[in-house]
Amino acid sequence: MKLVVDTNLLLSGTLWRGSPARLLNAVLSAPGTLCLSAEIILEFGEVLGRKEFAARLASQGTTVSDVMQRYQRLGRRILPAQLSDVPSLRDPKDLKILAAAVGAKADAIVTGDNDLLVLKEFAGIPIIDAAEALKRLGLS
């Protein structure tokens, strides 16, 4: 199962426990494929490098560089599709997630962001939360 995961879910799954962490660990170790565009990787690195997350990373014995290397090594780098404006998209910053999903021909977009979840699907690609993704992978 090819998944595109938004930055907030990447952050949550990297720094805390719960469904996002279970999903990322599972997808990075076999049952699925984590599809990442350069824009998603860049945004994730910028957010993860914020001062407010430094103590959390240190408590896990890791660094921003370690985390980024893991995702770049284990995730699949994809080219996003060229999308014009999407009128139903409430937050224009989320366009990069939709473009990555279309470019990857993803099976699902996984997010905790209500601005994306409210769409339910885009270009035939379901938009689901981490718990639903775990169910679809048979891991719930």
Quaternary status of these chains?
A: single chain
Total tally of structural domains: 1
Biggest sheet character: 6 strands, mixed
Helicity, as a percent range: 40-55%
Number of helices: 8
CATH homology superfamily name: 5'-nuclease
Number of strands: 6
- The SS-based structural class is alpha/beta
What CATH calls the topology is: Rossmann fold
Q: What does the overall shape look like?
A: globular
| Unreliable stretches covering 5 or more consecutive residues | none
Strand order of the largest sheet: 3-2-1-4-6-5
SSE string, helices as H and strands as E? EHHEHHHEHEHEEH
- The CATH architecture: 3-Layer(aba) Sandwich
Radius of gyration, in Å, reads 14 Å
Q: How far apart are the termini?
A: 15 Å
CATH class: Alpha Beta
Strand content: 5-15%
**Please, what is the average pLDDT?**
94
Q: Could you write a compact summary of the structure shown?
A:
This protein is an alpha/beta fold and 140 residues long.
Question: If you had to describe this structure to a student in words, what would you say it looks like?
Answer:
The chain has 140 residues and is α/β, with parallel strands linked by helices. The protein has one domain: Rossmann fold (3-Layer(aba) Sandwich), CATH 3.40.50.1010. Strands 3-2-1-4-6-5 form a six-stranded mixed beta sheet, sandwiched between helices. The two termini are 15 Å apart. The mean pLDDT is 94.
List keywords for this structure.
single chain; 140 residues; alpha/beta; Rossmann fold; six-stranded mixed β-sheet; 6 strands
